[in-house]
Amino acid sequence: MTNSIPYGHQSIDESDIEAVAAALRGDWLTTGPTVAEFERQIAAVAGSQGAVAVTSGTAALHTAYAAAGVSSGDQVIVPALTFAATASTASLLGAEIVFADVEEDTGNIDPDAVTALATERTAAVAAVDFAGHPAEIDALLPIARSVGALLVEDAAHSIGSTYHGRPVGSLADLTTYSFFPTKNLTTTEGGAVVSDDAALLGAARAFRSHGLVRDPELQRNPDEGAWHQEIHRLGLNYRLPDVLCALGLSQLRRLEEFKASRSRVFDRYVEGLGGVEGLRLPTKREHVDPMWHLFPIRVQDGRRREVFDRLRAQGILVQVNYIPVYWHPYYEDLGYRRGLCPVAERYYSEEISLPMYANLSAADQDRVIDAVRSILA
Predict the structure, then answer these.
(1) Which of these is catalytic: 62, 133, 157, 183?
(2) Which fold, 255-376?
(3) 183 catalytic residue (yes or no)
(4) Could you tell me the pTM of the whole model?
(5) What residue spans of the chain are helical by DSSP H?
(6) Which residue, 71, 155, 202, 218, is most buried by CB atoms nearer than 10 A?
Protein backbone atom coordinates (compact mmCIF):
# COMPACT_ATOMS: atom_id res chain seq x y z
CA MET A 1 0.00 0.00 0.00
CA THR A 2 1.28 3.49 -0.87
CA ASN A 3 2.40 5.54 2.11
CA SER A 4 0.20 8.48 3.03
CA ILE A 5 1.47 12.05 2.71
CA PRO A 6 0.10 14.33 5.47
CA TYR A 7 -0.76 17.95 4.71
CA GLY A 8 1.51 19.09 7.56
CA HIS A 9 4.12 17.49 9.79
CA GLN A 10 6.59 18.45 12.49
CA SER A 11 10.36 18.36 11.95
CA ILE A 12 12.05 16.83 15.01
CA ASP A 13 15.74 15.91 15.15
CA GLU A 14 18.14 14.62 17.80
CA SER A 15 18.96 18.13 19.01
CA ASP A 16 15.28 18.64 19.87
CA ILE A 17 15.14 15.34 21.74
CA GLU A 18 18.34 16.17 23.65
CA ALA A 19 16.99 19.60 24.61
CA VAL A 20 13.81 18.12 26.06
CA ALA A 21 15.74 15.38 27.88
CA ALA A 22 18.05 18.00 29.42
CA ALA A 23 15.04 19.97 30.65
CA LEU A 24 13.56 16.83 32.20
CA ARG A 25 16.83 16.23 34.07
CA GLY A 26 16.86 19.80 35.38
CA ASP A 27 15.27 21.43 38.40
CA TRP A 28 12.33 23.03 36.55
CA LEU A 29 9.47 21.39 34.71
CA THR A 30 7.01 24.24 34.55
CA THR A 31 7.54 28.02 34.61
CA GLY A 32 11.27 28.51 35.05
CA PRO A 33 14.36 29.93 33.32
CA THR A 34 13.78 28.12 30.03
CA VAL A 35 10.43 29.89 29.64
CA ALA A 36 12.11 33.25 30.18
CA GLU A 37 14.81 32.46 27.60
CA PHE A 38 12.25 31.20 25.09
CA GLU A 39 10.26 34.40 25.52
CA ARG A 40 13.42 36.47 25.03
CA GLN A 41 14.27 34.68 21.80
CA ILE A 42 10.70 34.80 20.47
CA ALA A 43 10.69 38.56 21.09
CA ALA A 44 13.98 38.83 19.19
CA VAL A 45 12.55 36.94 16.19
CA ALA A 46 9.45 39.14 16.33
CA GLY A 47 11.42 42.38 16.64
CA SER A 48 9.27 43.24 19.65
CA GLN A 49 9.95 44.43 23.19
CA GLY A 50 8.62 41.31 24.86
CA ALA A 51 6.82 37.99 24.57
CA VAL A 52 4.47 35.99 26.78
CA ALA A 53 4.52 32.22 26.19
CA VAL A 54 1.19 30.42 26.55
CA THR A 55 -0.23 26.94 26.06
CA SER A 56 -1.58 27.25 22.49
CA GLY A 57 -2.31 29.62 19.65
CA THR A 58 -5.90 29.75 20.88
CA ALA A 59 -4.69 30.71 24.37
CA ALA A 60 -2.54 33.39 22.74
CA LEU A 61 -5.59 34.93 21.05
CA HIS A 62 -7.64 34.76 24.25
CA THR A 63 -4.78 36.36 26.18
CA ALA A 64 -4.24 39.09 23.57
CA TYR A 65 -7.91 40.07 23.48
CA ALA A 66 -8.04 40.10 27.29
CA ALA A 67 -4.90 42.26 27.42
CA ALA A 68 -6.55 44.62 24.92
CA GLY A 69 -9.47 44.99 27.33
CA VAL A 70 -12.06 43.35 25.08
CA SER A 71 -15.27 42.80 27.03
CA SER A 72 -19.06 42.65 26.84
CA GLY A 73 -20.52 45.32 24.58
CA ASP A 74 -17.41 45.60 22.42
CA GLN A 75 -17.15 44.60 18.79
CA VAL A 76 -14.18 42.72 17.35
CA ILE A 77 -13.68 42.63 13.58
CA VAL A 78 -12.24 39.35 12.26
CA PRO A 79 -11.86 37.88 8.77
CA ALA A 80 -14.46 35.35 7.74
CA LEU A 81 -11.74 33.05 6.38
CA THR A 82 -9.86 31.81 9.45
CA PHE A 83 -9.85 29.10 12.07
CA ALA A 84 -12.74 29.61 14.48
CA ALA A 85 -10.47 30.55 17.42
CA THR A 86 -9.81 34.00 15.94
CA ALA A 87 -13.47 34.74 16.63
CA SER A 88 -14.41 32.36 19.46
CA THR A 89 -11.83 33.64 21.94
CA ALA A 90 -13.26 37.16 21.57
CA SER A 91 -16.78 35.74 21.87
CA LEU A 92 -15.78 34.13 25.18
CA LEU A 93 -14.93 37.60 26.50
CA GLY A 94 -18.43 38.80 25.61
CA ALA A 95 -17.62 40.64 22.39
CA GLU A 96 -19.87 40.81 19.35
CA ILE A 97 -18.03 39.44 16.32
CA VAL A 98 -18.13 41.44 13.08
CA PHE A 99 -17.02 39.38 10.10
CA ALA A 100 -15.07 41.14 7.36
CA ASP A 101 -14.60 39.85 3.84
CA VAL A 102 -11.15 38.97 2.51
CA GLU A 103 -8.95 39.91 -0.42
CA GLU A 104 -9.53 37.84 -3.53
CA ASP A 105 -5.88 36.98 -4.07
CA THR A 106 -4.36 36.47 -0.59
CA GLY A 107 -7.39 35.41 1.47
CA ASN A 108 -6.35 38.00 4.08
CA ILE A 109 -8.75 40.48 5.65
CA ASP A 110 -9.68 43.27 3.23
CA PRO A 111 -8.84 46.76 4.58
CA ASP A 112 -11.73 48.25 2.58
CA ALA A 113 -14.15 45.87 4.29
CA VAL A 114 -12.72 46.83 7.69
CA THR A 115 -13.15 50.54 6.88
CA ALA A 116 -16.84 49.95 6.15
CA LEU A 117 -17.38 47.99 9.39
CA ALA A 118 -15.33 49.87 12.00
CA THR A 119 -17.29 51.96 14.53
CA GLU A 120 -16.79 53.50 17.95
CA ARG A 121 -17.76 50.11 19.42
CA THR A 122 -14.81 48.39 17.73
CA ALA A 123 -12.31 47.38 20.41
CA ALA A 124 -10.02 45.29 18.23
CA VAL A 125 -9.39 44.38 14.62
CA ALA A 126 -7.87 40.95 14.04
CA ALA A 127 -5.76 40.40 10.92
CA VAL A 128 -4.91 36.79 10.08
CA ASP A 129 -1.80 36.06 7.98
CA PHE A 130 -3.43 33.33 5.90
CA ALA A 131 -1.00 30.59 4.76
CA GLY A 132 1.94 32.67 6.05
CA HIS A 133 1.40 35.70 3.78
CA PRO A 134 1.28 38.82 6.01
CA ALA A 135 -1.88 40.91 5.96
CA GLU A 136 -1.75 44.56 4.89
CA ILE A 137 -0.92 45.88 8.34
CA ASP A 138 0.09 49.36 7.15
CA ALA A 139 -3.39 49.84 5.73
CA LEU A 140 -5.17 48.32 8.72
CA LEU A 141 -3.41 50.22 11.53
CA PRO A 142 -4.78 53.69 10.64
CA ILE A 143 -8.27 52.24 10.27
CA ALA A 144 -8.07 50.76 13.78
CA ARG A 145 -6.57 54.00 15.15
CA SER A 146 -9.40 56.07 13.62
CA VAL A 147 -11.95 54.39 15.91
CA GLY A 148 -9.69 53.90 18.95
CA ALA A 149 -9.26 50.16 18.41
CA LEU A 150 -6.19 47.96 18.77
CA LEU A 151 -4.85 45.85 15.94
CA VAL A 152 -4.20 42.17 16.73
CA GLU A 153 -2.20 40.19 14.17
CA ASP A 154 -3.06 36.49 14.28
CA ALA A 155 0.30 35.20 13.04
CA ALA A 156 -0.34 31.52 13.76
CA HIS A 157 0.84 30.82 10.19
CA SER A 158 3.58 33.40 9.81
CA ILE A 159 6.34 33.52 12.42
CA GLY A 160 9.51 34.28 10.43
CA SER A 161 7.67 36.23 7.72
CA THR A 162 8.51 39.84 6.90
CA TYR A 163 6.40 42.72 5.58
CA HIS A 164 8.17 45.64 3.90
CA GLY A 165 11.35 44.26 5.44
CA ARG A 166 9.94 44.26 9.00
CA PRO A 167 9.36 41.04 10.93
CA VAL A 168 5.86 39.86 11.73
CA GLY A 169 5.54 40.60 15.44
CA SER A 170 6.79 44.18 15.13
CA LEU A 171 3.84 45.45 13.10
CA ALA A 172 0.61 45.36 15.15
CA ASP A 173 -0.29 46.34 18.72
CA LEU A 174 -0.41 42.66 19.69
CA THR A 175 0.70 39.64 17.67
CA THR A 176 -0.09 36.01 18.43
CA TYR A 177 1.77 32.87 17.39
CA SER A 178 0.92 29.18 17.40
CA PHE A 179 3.45 26.38 17.92
CA PHE A 180 1.21 23.42 17.07
CA PRO A 181 3.13 20.54 15.40
CA THR A 182 2.07 21.48 11.84
CA LYS A 183 3.12 25.12 12.29
CA ASN A 184 6.44 26.68 11.29
CA LEU A 185 8.08 25.63 14.56
CA THR A 186 6.67 23.59 17.41
CA THR A 187 6.59 23.24 21.18
CA THR A 188 4.06 20.37 20.68
CA GLU A 189 1.21 22.58 21.91
CA GLY A 190 2.01 26.22 22.60
CA GLY A 191 1.78 29.82 21.54
CA ALA A 192 2.94 33.31 22.39
CA VAL A 193 1.81 36.92 22.50
CA VAL A 194 4.28 39.65 21.53
CA SER A 195 4.02 43.43 21.77
CA ASP A 196 6.04 46.64 22.07
CA ASP A 197 3.63 47.96 24.72
CA ALA A 198 4.76 47.24 28.29
CA ALA A 199 1.24 47.66 29.67
CA LEU A 200 -0.22 45.17 27.17
CA LEU A 201 2.57 42.69 27.93
CA GLY A 202 1.94 43.05 31.66
CA ALA A 203 -1.78 42.47 31.19
CA ALA A 204 -1.07 39.42 29.02
CA ARG A 205 1.38 38.01 31.57
CA ALA A 206 -1.16 38.42 34.36
CA PHE A 207 -3.99 36.85 32.35
CA ARG A 208 -1.95 33.72 31.55
CA SER A 209 -1.34 33.22 35.31
CA HIS A 210 -4.88 33.45 36.74
CA GLY A 211 -4.67 37.26 36.87
CA LEU A 212 -2.46 37.04 39.97
CA VAL A 213 -0.78 40.26 41.13
CA ARG A 214 2.41 39.54 43.08
CA ASP A 215 4.07 42.98 43.01
CA PRO A 216 3.37 44.66 46.42
CA GLU A 217 3.39 48.08 44.76
CA LEU A 218 0.39 47.05 42.67
CA GLN A 219 -1.56 45.22 45.39
CA ARG A 220 -4.54 46.56 47.26
CA ASN A 221 -3.44 44.95 50.54
CA PRO A 222 0.36 44.72 50.31
CA ASP A 223 0.99 44.32 54.06
CA GLU A 224 -0.63 40.90 54.27
CA GLY A 225 2.70 39.06 54.12
CA ALA A 226 5.40 37.88 51.72
CA TRP A 227 3.12 35.09 50.53
CA HIS A 228 0.36 37.47 49.49
CA GLN A 229 -1.03 37.61 45.96
CA GLU A 230 -4.22 39.16 44.64
CA ILE A 231 -6.55 38.83 41.66
CA HIS A 232 -7.81 42.15 40.30
CA ARG A 233 -8.99 40.84 36.92
CA LEU A 234 -9.79 37.21 36.20
CA GLY A 235 -7.31 35.16 34.22
CA LEU A 236 -6.59 31.52 33.43
CA ASN A 237 -3.72 29.06 33.71
CA TYR A 238 -2.17 29.35 30.26
CA ARG A 239 1.45 28.86 31.39
CA LEU A 240 3.71 27.02 28.95
CA PRO A 241 6.14 24.74 30.84
CA ASP A 242 9.93 24.73 30.70
CA VAL A 243 9.99 21.29 29.06
CA LEU A 244 8.02 22.50 26.04
CA CYS A 245 9.95 25.76 25.86
CA ALA A 246 13.15 23.69 25.72
CA LEU A 247 11.81 22.11 22.53
CA GLY A 248 10.86 25.57 21.25
CA LEU A 249 14.34 26.94 21.89
CA SER A 250 15.87 24.05 19.97
CA GLN A 251 13.42 24.59 17.09
CA LEU A 252 14.19 28.32 16.96
CA ARG A 253 17.80 27.49 16.08
CA ARG A 254 16.49 25.96 12.84
CA LEU A 255 13.90 28.62 12.01
CA GLU A 256 15.80 29.96 9.00
CA GLU A 257 16.39 26.40 7.80
CA PHE A 258 12.66 25.71 8.09
CA LYS A 259 11.87 28.90 6.16
CA ALA A 260 14.27 28.02 3.36
CA SER A 261 12.87 24.48 3.12
CA ARG A 262 9.28 25.69 2.99
CA SER A 263 10.21 28.27 0.34
CA ARG A 264 11.73 25.51 -1.80
CA VAL A 265 8.55 23.46 -1.44
CA PHE A 266 6.47 26.50 -2.40
CA ASP A 267 8.60 27.27 -5.47
CA ARG A 268 8.56 23.62 -6.58
CA TYR A 269 4.75 23.58 -6.45
CA VAL A 270 4.57 26.81 -8.45
CA GLU A 271 6.87 25.33 -11.10
CA GLY A 272 5.13 21.96 -11.16
CA LEU A 273 1.54 23.22 -11.18
CA GLY A 274 1.89 26.38 -13.24
CA GLY A 275 -0.36 26.52 -16.27
CA VAL A 276 -2.76 23.78 -15.15
CA GLU A 277 -6.19 24.69 -16.48
CA GLY A 278 -8.84 25.19 -13.80
CA LEU A 279 -6.25 25.72 -11.06
CA ARG A 280 -5.30 28.94 -9.30
CA LEU A 281 -2.08 29.10 -7.29
CA PRO A 282 -1.39 31.26 -4.21
CA THR A 283 -0.28 34.87 -4.50
CA LYS A 284 2.95 36.35 -3.16
CA ARG A 285 3.06 40.14 -3.12
CA GLU A 286 6.38 41.84 -3.81
CA HIS A 287 6.71 43.53 -0.41
CA VAL A 288 6.39 40.33 1.65
CA ASP A 289 8.79 37.47 2.38
CA PRO A 290 6.51 34.77 3.77
CA MET A 291 7.33 31.83 5.97
CA TRP A 292 4.89 29.58 4.13
CA HIS A 293 2.66 27.47 6.37
CA LEU A 294 0.17 26.33 3.72
CA PHE A 295 0.14 25.91 -0.04
CA PRO A 296 -3.51 26.76 -0.82
CA ILE A 297 -4.63 25.95 -4.34
CA ARG A 298 -7.96 27.09 -5.77
CA VAL A 299 -9.80 24.46 -7.83
CA GLN A 300 -12.25 26.11 -10.21
CA ASP A 301 -15.34 24.98 -12.12
CA GLY A 302 -16.96 23.36 -9.08
CA ARG A 303 -14.43 20.51 -8.94
CA ARG A 304 -12.98 21.10 -5.45
CA ARG A 305 -14.82 18.17 -3.80
CA GLU A 306 -13.87 15.80 -6.63
CA VAL A 307 -10.19 16.76 -6.49
CA PHE A 308 -10.13 16.59 -2.70
CA ASP A 309 -11.71 13.12 -2.59
CA ARG A 310 -9.51 11.72 -5.35
CA LEU A 311 -6.31 13.02 -3.72
CA ARG A 312 -7.34 11.55 -0.38
CA ALA A 313 -8.11 8.22 -2.06
CA GLN A 314 -4.49 8.20 -3.28
CA GLY A 315 -3.16 8.73 0.24
CA ILE A 316 -2.48 12.45 -0.25
CA LEU A 317 -4.07 13.79 2.93
CA VAL A 318 -4.99 17.27 1.78
CA GLN A 319 -7.00 19.64 3.96
CA VAL A 320 -9.36 22.60 3.49
CA ASN A 321 -8.64 25.90 5.29
CA TYR A 322 -11.17 27.18 6.31
CA ILE A 323 -14.95 27.00 6.50
CA PRO A 324 -16.19 30.61 6.88
CA VAL A 325 -16.47 31.05 10.64
CA TYR A 326 -20.07 32.26 10.62
CA TRP A 327 -21.14 29.03 8.91
CA HIS A 328 -20.50 27.18 12.17
CA PRO A 329 -23.83 26.41 13.91
CA TYR A 330 -22.84 28.45 16.98
CA TYR A 331 -22.72 31.63 14.91
CA GLU A 332 -25.67 30.60 12.73
CA ASP A 333 -27.69 30.39 15.94
CA LEU A 334 -26.69 33.98 16.71
CA GLY A 335 -28.24 35.13 13.43
CA TYR A 336 -25.28 35.22 11.03
CA ARG A 337 -26.27 34.06 7.56
CA ARG A 338 -24.48 32.67 4.52
CA GLY A 339 -23.76 35.27 1.86
CA LEU A 340 -22.34 37.73 4.41
CA CYS A 341 -18.79 37.65 2.97
CA PRO A 342 -19.01 36.47 -0.66
CA VAL A 343 -15.29 36.61 -1.45
CA ALA A 344 -14.43 34.45 1.59
CA GLU A 345 -17.20 32.00 0.70
CA ARG A 346 -15.97 31.71 -2.88
CA TYR A 347 -12.39 31.24 -1.66
CA TYR A 348 -13.53 28.47 0.69
CA SER A 349 -15.54 26.75 -2.06
CA GLU A 350 -12.38 26.37 -4.16
CA GLU A 351 -9.56 25.92 -1.60
CA ILE A 352 -7.46 22.82 -0.95
CA SER A 353 -4.27 22.88 1.13
CA LEU A 354 -1.62 20.65 -0.41
CA PRO A 355 1.05 18.98 1.76
CA MET A 356 3.48 21.66 2.97
CA TYR A 357 6.21 21.07 5.55
CA ALA A 358 9.95 21.44 5.88
CA ASN A 359 10.76 17.74 5.49
CA LEU A 360 8.49 17.07 2.50
CA SER A 361 10.64 15.05 0.11
CA ALA A 362 10.99 15.88 -3.56
CA ALA A 363 9.63 12.42 -4.42
CA ASP A 364 6.51 12.90 -2.29
CA GLN A 365 5.99 16.40 -3.65
CA ASP A 366 6.29 15.10 -7.22
CA ARG A 367 3.66 12.51 -6.35
CA VAL A 368 1.32 15.31 -5.23
CA ILE A 369 2.02 17.40 -8.33
CA ASP A 370 1.51 14.46 -10.68
CA ALA A 371 -1.76 13.52 -8.96
CA VAL A 372 -3.19 17.05 -9.20
CA ARG A 373 -2.17 17.39 -12.84
CA SER A 374 -3.63 13.98 -13.68
CA ILE A 375 -6.99 14.71 -12.03
CA LEU A 376 -7.34 18.09 -13.74
CA ALA A 377 -6.04 16.97 -17.13
Answers:
(1) 183
(2) Aspartate Aminotransferase, domain 1 (3.90.1150)
(3) yes
(4) 0.97
(5) 14-25, 33-46, 57-67, 85-92, 111-117, 137-146, 198-207, 242-252, 255-273, 304-313, 329-332, 342-350, 362-376
(6) 155
